[in-house]
Structures are given as structure tokens and as C-alpha cells.
Amino acid sequence: MPKVSHRRHHHTAQHERGNLFSVLFHINAISQIYHYHMTPEMTVYALKSIRDLVFMGIELLTENTMIQVISLKAHNRTPLRDLAEEYLSNENRSFVEFAYIGEETYQVETNSVLFLWIFYCFLHGPTGLKVLQKGVRCLTLARALRVITFSLTILPNPNPKCKFTGPVDPLNLSPGKVHIEKKRFEIFVPFLGGACNDLLYSGHVIVYTISALAVTILCSSYPYAILRFFIRVFIWTQVIQRMIRAVIELHHYSVDMFLGLCVTLLMWHAEVLYYDLPTPPQPLYPHLKKLLFPFDHDGVVDRYVEQFTLVYKHFKRQPMRTLASLIQHHDIAFPAKIRMKQI
């Protein structure tokens, strides 16, 4: 039986002790970072937010898998007759032209819509974060229900040339592309995720509707009724444009888009969205300051926040006068004594 030398045994023990000290060092470093940057309230909020994001990630992976599994099933590929598509693209060209207004300017891709939705909510502080948290839950539940509907009954794709041949890959978000030829227009359309038979109902319209709801709610604090009205008309006009484009480009049937809009609007008012909903700690500013600037003992950040808060307060009350003052004088006349506005 071979014998292990004393030197080798001593070297192994030293290596194990070194690994143990390294682990303890990293644990201590993480605990110090947590101590300096996180408050208990922010920790609870972060853990609940991560929980909801994990559920959403699981749902999206499950959905993408089922999309491809269902698209591989044998079925009659003859498209169903879509009366709305016939009317929009053939009988009344004005609707097609309306759908493509702003295509090169303000109409962006679906992924960009998601980013803008999140960014817009962050700009509105605690209220925006609440709307964002609710939107994440609404998105998860609405898309989970969508998986059930398109899995129960397979609808043929409105484009007969669409054919998904596999293999099934949950991480593959763009299985293929299709060239669509219509009587009055010709376009090259990439599939925006999924395969061919994830139709009833549309997942894209869920994103559009939740984004429009967020803008509608958060712009209610803006000055001037005409400004609020214009913003709401603009955002919902984009939703209608995108719904028409999805139908005439043969991504979806018109019933997919209409049902997706109705389900999302109804789901937004469901009580389950409020159950244990992550709520930002109030007031939010001290928690954010400790998270981002834990060593600001001189109050430099506080002074900048005070200035920004007062500018924002002036802007909400008198937007045109505030902008004119900033342009002309690069400053605003503030009171001699100012107090930190808790945000």
C-alpha cells in the first residue's frame, strides 16, 4: 500500500486552509459591501423584485419552448380567412398608409419598446417603480395565459410560407425569416421571436398595451391638460399602428391582436397583481443614497439633489418660465433657505 509523504500531506493541509481563508475573506467583503450599501428595507424590496423577475424568466423560457413544440405539430397550413386583414390591406389603402406613419422616426422595435418602458418608469421615482412592478406581473400572467390558449388549439399561420422545422431550443428567439408578397406592397419581415403557431393571442400587443398603460398613468402628474392629452393620444395611436402592421404583415390574425389587447387591459385590474407586490421604501432617497453614495459625508450629493428637486418643482408649476430662465440665466432664483424634498 503506497504511503503519502509527510511533505505532501502538509502541502495539502496548507492548500485547504488557504481556500478556507479565501472563502472567509470573500464572505467578509460581501458583508461589508452589504453593510455600507444596503438598508433592510431596500433588501426586502430587492429580494421581492428578484423573485418576480425569476418567475418572469421561467415563464418566458417555458413560452418559447412551447411555441416551438406546437409549431412542429402536424396541422393544416391553409390560412384562415381574416376579414379585417382583407379590409385593411386590400379595400382601404389609407389604413396601411396610416400604420406606417413614423416608421423611420418614432416607431421602434419591440425590444426597444421594452427598454423605453422600463426607462420611463424609472424616471418617475417610486410611483414609476410601482407601475413597473405591476407591469412585470401583468406581463408574466398575460403571457402565461397565452401559452395555454395557443397550445389548446393550433391555428395555421396567416402566412402559408411560414414553416418551423426545429430543433426545439428555448434560447432561440429568432427561428427564421419570411418573405411576404401582397397585392399592393412587398416587405421583408423578420420573425420577432417564436416560430409559426404562437398566434392566439399576440404576445407583442401585451408589451405595447402595458407600455401605453404605464405612460397613461405616469403622465397624469404633468402640467397642462393639453400636454397630457397629446401624450396619451400619441402613445395609444402607436399601439393601434402596431396592431394594424402585425395584421397586414401576416404576423397575426386580427383576432389575435384584438384579444391580446382586451386580455391585457382586463388583467391590469386583477387583484392578484397587488398580492405581495414589491413596494419601494419610503422615502426612497436615503436608501438610494446609501446604495450609490455611502461615503458622501460632506453632503455634496444632497446639495445636487436639492437643486434638481427645486428645478423639477418649478418646472411642474411653470414649465415654460422655468425653461426660459434656464436658457437665459443658466440658473433659477431659489429661496435663501431650502429643505431637502424627500423623494
Provide a descriptive summary of the structure in words.
The structure is a single chain. With 343 residues, this protein is mainly α. It folds into two domains: 41-167 and 194-283, no CATH class; 293-325. The protein has helices spanning 6-37, 40-71, 83-91, 93-99, 110-122, 125-152, 204-218, 225-248, 254-267, 285-292, 300-317, 319-329, and strands spanning 177-181, 186-190. Strands 1-2 form a two-stranded antiparallel sheet. Strand 1 and strand 2 form a beta hairpin. Helix 7 (204-218) packs across helix 9. The radius of gyration is 27 Å and the shape is flat. It starts with 5 loop residues before the first helix and ends in a 14-residue tail after the last helix. The model is unreliable at 176-193 and 333-343 (pLDDT under 50). This is Sphingomyelin synthase-like domain-containing protein. Its main location: membrane. Residues 196-270 form the Sphingomyelin synthase-like domain. GO terms for molecular function: ceramide cholinephosphotransferase activity; sphingomyelin synthase activity.
